[in-house]
Model the fold of this input.
Amino acid sequence: MSHRIRVYISGPLSQGNREQNVRNAIEAGRRLIEAGFSVFVPHLSHYMDETDEFGHDTWVAVDLQWVAVSDAVLRLPGRSSGADAEVRHAQHLGIPVYHDIEELIANPPPKGDARFHALLRRIAVLHDAKQRDYGRQHDPFANVRGASEWGVRPWVGAMVRATDKLRRLQQYARSGTLANEGAEDSFLDLAVYALIALILWREEQGLPPYGLGSEWQRVSLGTVPGPAGGEEQERAA
Done:
């Protein structure tokens, strides 16, 4: 099965003609599927929540998760502070944003080796599984942070663990065998500890977290004029 580029379709939903906005997003999605892309059309949530029972904060939290795992974002025309927030989030994560569907089809974002992306997914699964054993409910890195109890900065503690894996791989390179865990496990653990060290280092430096950090979990969408001259919050698509 060929690898399809994942495209998140961003555009107005509650601003303007809601039904037309949904149709525009569906048409864009169908065009991209026909061109060989895999699409996520958040506007279809309209049929799940026509009365906005969940509220815009819930849909923002849902939609930004999907933006984060997309390969590209297609921004449809039209005013939408929610869509603008999605674009900012994509740009923050280095995800390319297109404003023209034909440009996206003609010049899609480059994709690396599918095996590399498969390993990244495996690393995420490995991290989640080990968190249940070593982390705490609100801190998946609690075991690594324990290094601070010995006067060692947490990110340095992660790199000490990474060095252990590196030493094992050096032994494997010399002898061709390992006594306990295999070489593949050591490669994966080395990558995991390097990522944990980067996260903890950025935390120590006071830098914002990658992905859905606190600065993205609640995005201010502003207000738009309501039908009776009042104000209502604009639903993010």
Notes: The first helix runs from residue 18 to 34. Residues 172 and 178 are 6 Å apart (CA to CA).
